[in-house]
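U., I forgot to send this yesterday:
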Amino acid sequence: MVLGRTLYKKLPEELKLPLDDGRLLIISPVSHSIKRQSPQSCAFRNRYIIENADEIVFGSLDKNGMLFPLYLDALENGKRISVIDSNKIK
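Result:
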């Protein structure tokens, strides 16, 4: 899980078991001073994920959406990409 904010001070209950079992890794690529998500921190998080992922899966894309430029960059850089609902690329 990659957060668009600093790491949790108190881990949500539903994340404790997967984390303890080694099935979950929590990463925060943003500054520790960012306590809440913002459009800027989410954009940074999304770019971080795309740059570090071997394969990227988008649920759907809108050419006017914030993820579409990241999709185009990933295509240009030869990333493996899947779009679950490719009919929604408008």
